[in-house]
Amino acid sequence: MTYFNRKLMKRDIPASATVEGALVIPVILYAVAAVMFLLQLISIRMHVNDALYNALRKFNTYSYTSQVMTGEIYKSTFFAIFVDEIGSDYAKKHYIAGGNTGWNFYGSDIADDNSTVKISLKYTVKNPFNILGKRQITIYEKRITDIWLGEEKDGFELNNNDESEYVYITQYGEVYHIEKMCSYLVRNIKAASLAEITDLRNASGGKYYPCSLCKGASKIVYYTDYGDKYHASDSCYALQRTILKVKKEKIKGMECCKKCIHS
Q1: In the chain, where are the structural domains located?
Q2: Which tens digit of pLDDT belongs to each residue from 89-117?
Q3: Are 96 and 115 a contacting pair, CB within 8 Å?
């Protein structure tokens, strides 16, 4: 073997390694990107499912209040509750096509059949890595549940002829109230200008922050002494509260409101 041939072989080794590296590295990066996208999809679905569950629970409360007060249940309210639960900026941050308008609830039946709620959610996740040639993936979620519209349920007072002791609670409250008109139970909605709200403090000395559900341009805002949010509308869902009258024996473990004790 001549000196020239030996020198040529030495040069061929690093050249072949460069070619292999050029082929292998993109494949590895592609595989990593694919795994990252799949993990992102799993995380998004889990978060969406949690938001759907919590939104349905809150919608249960809203539905009963609306049915009693107006005789109607507004379907658009569920969308607002869902966006509040999942976060108003979640869709934008997690590549949901169309942002918040990408949460598609078309095909949902809300209280059309007695008190049954059928939720059909469709949304599309954009693929930032363009894995397998797919620029986006569409996901479907379905939920069927019942809402309470005043039917007789165990623990709720519909008959005033018994001698049981009754107390008052809210749907997600942690204490019970002896007095139905307790100031912690009944919300006294107040109004102030947007400029004034920054200087106001609630009963605990805390500041007021914009409500994520009804935030928008408004010169007049609404608040309560015991809340920490101000609202662009006095009809905001977050300002509503359903008061339930229940038997005291049904709420074991709940403490009595301190204000009711000393009243």
Answers
A1: 13-146, 166-261
A2: 899 888 899 888 899 988 887 655 456 67
A3: no
